[in-house]
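User: I'm writing a tutorial on reading structure tokens. Could you give me a worked example: one chain, its sequence, then its tokens, then a sentence or two explaining what the tokens reveal?
Assistant: Sure. Here is the example chain.
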Amino acid sequence: MSVRRGPVSGVGTALAAVTAVALAATLAGPATAAPAGGDHGATRAAMDAAVKDGVPGVALQAKDAHGTWKATSGVGSLKTGKPRSADDRYRVGSITKTFVSTVLLQLEAEGRLSLDDTVDKWLPGVVHGHGHDGRKITVRQLLNHTSGIFNYTADDTFGRTYFLKDGFFKHRYDTKTPKQLVGIAMSHKPLFAPGTSWSYSNTNYVLAGMVIKSVTGHSYATEIRHRIIEPLHLSATSLPGTRVTVPQPSSRAYSKLAETATGPTYDVTKLNPSLASSAGEVISDSADLNRFYSALLRGKLLPKKQLKEMKTTIRIEGSANRYGLGIADITLSCGTHLWGHDGGIHGSSSAAATTPDGRHSLAFNFNGDWSGDAGAVIEAEFCGTE
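And here are its predicted structure tokens:
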């Protein structure tokens, strides 16, 4: 992943096209568990290939008409060689965005806001400076990344401070407020006029979290817990705030903390996730992510009108995929259509994808952020090709 873009970003657009980076050393271990039904052999092979490419370990769960299949490959700790668990909890990065968008769409369904409200209506004066103007940007444009607002994780100083080795180990426990993160973006010019193009920006979802608080009087974390986590009984899903650890069971998380995929590997498991805020704070596991996306696509979280709005997409330039409101529209090489999101944060690369009827879901995590072809795992599961 690009340090300039920042591990917190999540690709959000490359569920079917993640570039594999081959590394000389491999840490492949035996995959575990057997399919509950159906043939997941291609998926297992793609997981093993990711480990061969340098990913320390993979934790995965798939759910389809045959039941739930759990599998792992590689290790959860480079120090001890302990294997990963399919029940590992991990930082999901930008998959958080689907949770945030769902809450805002629920609020719209309740008549408490309109997606066409300006950002300035709910956050007066916050989006201002260097050409940014919250009076001309709508909540909808935040959610589908057409606002033009600069992505704070692309800021050079932020990148050096939090994504490169020297800065990370000095600042990994810093607490950043949403206002501070937005302030970084406001120090840059907009990328384009609102509504005229598309560009992935974590700042959009930091602002979306701030809008939730303005509308409800509660933090986005409180609303996600109340509206999604508790009703769906997502027992492994949490919003840690400033807590630096990942609940057990979990594996270690690893990064190069460099702009290249070579060089030393560092344990980056502990960090203050406030640097990701509502753009990427959530911790979950594969079972919970499958349950969440399946429930969402089956209409259990949103009325038909709001689910249709979420699935109204914008073309992503240079990609066959499209982006809706906090969710990506993916078409695989075999023609299979999926909805989902991916996410990256230091030492953790995750993806979740589900068929439109919610009946076949896949979620998995790499506990390294510099290599491995996530797209190949998705292709294997839904197209059956190795």
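What the tokens reveal: The longest strand covers residues 337-345. The chain is about 30% helix and 15% strand.
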